[in-house]
Amino acid sequence: DLFGSVLVFPQETNDSYVLVKAAPEQPLQNFSVCLRSYTDLTRPYSLFSYSTKSQDNEILLLKPKPGEYRLYVGGKSVSFAVPKGSPMEARHVCATWEATTGIVRFWLDGKAGPRKGVRKGYVVGNEAVVVLGQQQDSRTAGFAVGMSFVGEISDVYMWDAGLSGEDVYAAMDNRPIEAPIFGWRNFPFETKGEVYLKP
């Protein structure tokens, strides 16, 4: 249970990341990912990378620049414009996707953006490697310093279902309503390189 703790990525590297030691048992028709990040980076960086043998960017949550988040599903992406906000505050993001319509919902600090769509009818593979803080160009490899995350990540959750606004608020408080595939209150992980768990 990592409640009250954060993972600290102290500097740019191509070899420091967090390996999440869990993955779905079945291919996904729906998924949701939530996490909190705190950084003053203005260059692109990767927050959450879920890679399968057939697709490096099976699921990828990326911040390409201030004022934009991007979600990849099966290698195709959809972008959401967000207020730039102060760099001196943590941001909580949630993204959900459903195969039947391809609809993506995105929340920043509990506020929902307009729904968009990508990859209708796709099925997300389940034999995945899940990494925080780097973008996988192949499974747990091909990391680029220029995409590495520097700062703090916490409150990470993934579900095999969509979320409601109520679910998002519950995740922000670390008391998820639905049981996640993995989550911060029961988080199986391994740090690689220079990443530290801190209160």
Automatic annotation (TrEMBL):
Chief subcellular location: secreted
GO CC entries: extracellular space
Known cofactor(s): Ca(2+)
Matching InterPro entries: ConA-like_dom_sf, Pentraxin_domain, PTX_dom
UniProt subcellular location: Secreted
A Pfam family it matches: Pentaxin
UniProt name for this protein: Pentraxin family member
Organism annotation: Crypturellus undulatus
Lineage start: Eukaryota, Metazoa, Chordata, Craniata, Vertebrata
